[in-house]
Design goal:
The structure holds two protein chains of two kinds. Chain A is mainly β. Chain A contains four helices and 39 strands. Chain B has helices spanning 2-8, 19-22, 44-56, 71-74, 143-148, 172-179, 189-198, 231-243, 245-254; strands at residues 24-29, 32-33, 37-38, 59-64, 83-88, 95-96, 101-110, 130-135, 138-139, 155-159, 184-188, 203-207, 212-213, 216-217, 219-226. Classes of the chains: A mainly beta, B alpha+beta.
């Protein structure tokens, strides 16, 4: 299938015979300068010392303890022989000197976020990592600060407050730096926020623009150049008219996931999260622009196109997942696409110049929808599975989706996308009275459980052109870590019960595995050390939404805790304990 | 009160003289949420806690804990305290006492507007700006009936959590009515009754009807909570609620809590 005409942005020069669509200034020098590895978000490393023949010899090279016990979701960065690690709250940034034995701490930076911010994190106090650009490390704190830190000295260059924890906002995402603009989005769809993506000047930290996910066009930065592919997405102020009254003001749609960038088209791509309140009966309408993919200009934030994945989302299918930018030959024609395995259970292949959905193919068992109408672009929701103040059973996928934030990787060598994902279904019961701050209310009780087959997760190798799985490895727990794949045809990921695994990228055969101290829910990376050797690094430290039962010490008796995820994870505490630790592996 | 103590706390309080002082009643309470409780002891749940401790011959200790999401799990059920005063009597994550009052969601309006709203089906609501608390990730229950009527566009959400640095964050919704930011608030009765009494602008409080919509109730019976399995303390508190019924009732009325139905009504002998 590598001969099928797949081209991967950024590395086509390394693959003679394939058409070129290289992202400028992003040759793979063996570093890891942003969480998704490159602007195309492929998480593919051209390093090939570790291969399918020798991966079985991988050995632990060194470790580093963060001393923290909440969920560790970040990707370490490797720049100029220094490794940078962002911890969960209190969001300490560590710089480790890779030129010295055992990689001692070079410096640490403490942003001192407000402790109260922990109370507005819906799903553990995680952080998904940093971005390096032009001598600075950029990342965000849980209490809504974007910070720039001098990569050499650890001195703060600037710090900008972007949101208010009193309004339910927090920030957990890894920023992206494009064209001198730092892109940051907020979290908090569970707390009545209004979502946004903001662009900051990378040099000064000044806010250049903010694009809201709801409200009038001027707030969403929709103007004359906005050309969505589908007619139902055109029209004035849809971010107002698809809501009742002022509900858009607390309508959710945070941007807490991934951002990609195509320098040739000068477009950044990202998705917005679920609408609020969660109870769909309380917010009639399509609730634009929640659960939507936006293409915007990085320098101005101007929207160029949008596609709403799930109008009036009633399953918490946030649209924040990664968009992998690929040039594929589809039905004989070269297409510039973005490929995204979505929460709603489909792998979308979308023309990234126009926003046209080329295909949407389920990669997990789906019964809440029946595919996407490619004429209108609208997903076909199943009426019997619509939620509200009522009990609905047997809905698949569950709110964490076919796949949550855990990012996939793509190998231009195999042409496959390696999707770490869930296999969860759920039921929702409407009427348990609860009580908060002296106020009775009725919340939906959500209970999740394993989907068909009984395994709660899997890693699937997916052919985006054929629209089918090539192989799949089942996992007992949701596969809540990212994947990374190399030119040595080795694919790495970690499991929630603490196994770090190397698989043959061609067939999924297990080549090697290592039991780490705590479950893995982070993003493994591959880099070239100062000694010229290839290293694989991963943070362990279970937690996050899925691992809250361990990191938060939740009671397994209350299956509705962690928004219903605990019910599916009651046995996790028997398989792993908490604690943040970096593990780095290499060949002897 | 010592005679009650002997009869109720047989195991903990024999011999009788050791009872007072040895026993500690640990109550988790919000430090900033009147009319229920605050750190200065000004709420009716503060007063109720004092009354219970006195009745049981126990020393009252507070564990201050803001009542956000997972309050019960992180406080009472985590063993940080032994009782919480004020939970819905149907709650199944804790052991509840007998209910000691039943209240309702109410319409809160400025008296000078003379709106006299009582029904969620009132057509005049279509012309009203309606303030309602946003609770965790949902609007408070009556929003459901209004959204079904197509009145979602009339709703203005007020965060129940508000700015915690300010006094009694839920009271912002009452102030919004007094200031005329909204025409009417639909709000849980105890907030409305208490803050209406304090307001410089005369406010009117009337129960919403119907009392339930699509299976979602707007009236709730309220009880005290202990950890599951702590039958001893539950029974002790039940004893207090029976013995002190008249005092509890007077306390609720003093704080302006709108009371409905027979719940918490005292037996004639008391």
């Amino acid at each position: 299938m590598t001969q099928r005409g797949l081209v991967f942005l950024g590395f086509s020069a390394l693959l003679p015979g394939l058409a070129s669509a290289q992202i400028q200034n992003q040759p793979d020098d063996g570093q890891w300068v942003m969480a998704p590895k490159n602007y195309a978000s492929t998480r593919f490393s051209t390093l090939d010392q570790i291969n399918t023949g020798n991966a079985k010899n991988l050995k632990l090279a060194w470790t580093f303890s963060t001393g923290m016990t909440r969920g560790h979701e970040a990707a370490p960065l490797v720049v100029n022989n220094t490794m940078y690690i962002v911890t969960p709250f209190p969001n300490v940034l560590y710089a480790l000197d890779l030129t010295k034995p055992g990689a001692p701490v070079k410096w640490e930076y403490q942003p001192h976020p407000e402790p109260a911010s922990q109370g507005v994190a819906c799903c553990d106090v995680v952080n998904r990592g940093a971005a390096y650009s032009d001598g600075k490390i950029y990342y965000n704190t849980l209490d809504n600060q974007a910070v720039a830190v001098d990569a050499n000295t650890g001195k703060e260059v600037w710090k900008t407050k972007l949101g208010d924890i009193n309004q339910g906002e927090s920030i957990t995402m890894a920023p992206l730096v494009a064209k001198g603009v730092v892109l940051v989005g907020n979290s908090g769809g569970e707390f009545g926020i209004r979502g946004w993506l903001t662009g900051l000047d990378a040099g000064s930290g000044k806010i250049r623009w903010r694009a809201y996910s709801t409200g009038p066009d001027k707030d969403v930065l929709i103007g004359a150049n906005f050309k969505p592919f589908y007619s139902e997405l055109r029209g004035k102020d849809l971010g107002l008219s698809t809501w009742q009254g002022e509900q858009w003001k607390i309508g959710g749609g945070g941007s807490w996931g991934w951002i990609s960038y195509d320098p040739a088209l000068d477009l950044v791509y990202y998705g917005t999260a679920n609408p609020g309140p969660w109870n769909a009966d309380q917010r009639p309408g399509d609730n634009k622009w929640t659960c939507t993919i936006f293409a915007r200009r990085p320098e101005t934030g101007e929207a160029i196109w949008a596609y709403q994945l799930f109008p009036h989302d009633d399953h918490d299918y946030d649209g924040v997942n990664e968009n992998i930018l690929l040039d594929l030959t589809i039905n004989g024609s070269p297409r510039k696409v973005l490929v995204r395995p979505d929460r709603d259970g489909y792998v979308y292949v979308i023309d990234r110049t126009t926003g046209e959905v080329i295909s949407a193919t389920p990669f997990v068992y789906v019964n809440t929808t029946q595919g996407v109408d490619l004429k209108t672009g609208r997903i076909k929701a199943v009426d019997a599975k619509k939620t509200g103040y009522k009990t609905v059973r047997d809905m698949c996928p569950a709110p964490p989706g076919g796949k949550d934030w855990q990012p996939s990787s793509f190998s231009p060598k195999t042409g496959l996308i390696y999707i770490p994902h869930n296999n969860l279904c759920y039921e929702m019961q409407g009427t348990q009275a609860n009580y908060i701050a002296g106020t009775p209310y009725v919340g939906a009780n959500v209970r999740m459980y394993a989907g068909p087959g009984g395994n709660r997760g899997a890693v699937t190798a997916w052919d985006p052109v054929a629209g089918k799985a090539v192989w799949q490895v089942k996992e007992d727990f949701p596969a809540w870590s990212g994947t990374v794949v190399t030119a040595g045809d080795v694919m790495f990921y970690g499991t929630m019960d603490g196994w770090f695994k190397a698989l043959d990228a061609h067939n999924g055969n297990l080549l090697w595995q290592f039991k780490v101290g705590s479950g893995i829910i982070s993003q493994p990376v591959v880099y070239k050390g100062p000694d010229g050797k290839e290293y694989v690094a991963v943070l362990s430290g279970v937690g996050g939404w899925s691992g809250a039962i361990v990191a938060g010490g939740l009671n397994p008796v209350d299956g509705t805790a962690a928004l219903g995820f605990v019910n599916a994870m009651t046995d996790l505490p028997k398989h792993t304990t908490k604690g943040g630790m970096l593990y780095v592996f290499s060949l002897p | 009160m010592s005679s009650h103590c002997r009869s109720v706390l047989v195991i903990a309080c024999l011999p009788h003289l050791l009872c007072a002082g040895d026993r500690v009643l640990r109550v988790c309470a919000d430090p900033n949420n009147l009319p229920y409780s605050n750190q200065r002891g000004e709420g009716f749940e503060n007063r109720l806690a004092e009354l219970a401790a006195r009745d049981l011959g126990a020393t009252l200790e507070y564990v201050w804990w803001s009542q956000r999401k997972s309050f019960l799990r992180d406080s009472l059920n985590a063993g940080k305290c032994d009782a919480v005063l004020g939970v819905p009597a149907t709650l199944d994550s804790v052991e509840v006492t007998r209910p000691y009052y039943r209240s309702t969601y109410v319409f809160l309006t400025r008296a000078d507007r003379q709106l006299q709203l009582t029904a969620l089906s009132d057509p005049r609501l279509e012309q009203c700006r309606i303030g309602i608390h946003v609770v965790d990730n949902d609007y408070a229950p009556p929003a459901q009936a209004l959204a079904r009527r197509g009145l979602g566009s009339n709703l203005s959400g007020y965060s129940l959590f508000g700015k915690y640095g300010e006094a009694n964050p839920p009271a912002r919704l009452v102030e919004a009515v007094a200031h005329g930011d909204v025409d009417v608030a639909i709000i849980w009765g105890p907030f409305a009754g208490y803050f209406a009494k304090q307001s410089d602008v005369p406010l009117q409080v009337t129960a919403v009807s119907p009392a339930a919509y699509m299976g979602v109730p707007f009236t709730y019976s309220i009880a005290a909570a202990v950890r599951k399995g702590d039958d001893t303390l539950r029974d002790a508190l039940n004893g207090v609620l029976v013995r002190e019924c008249t005092a509890v009732r007077a306390l609720l009325e003093h704080y302006g809590v709108p009371l409905v139905e027979e719940e918490g009504k005292c037996a004639p002998s008391q």
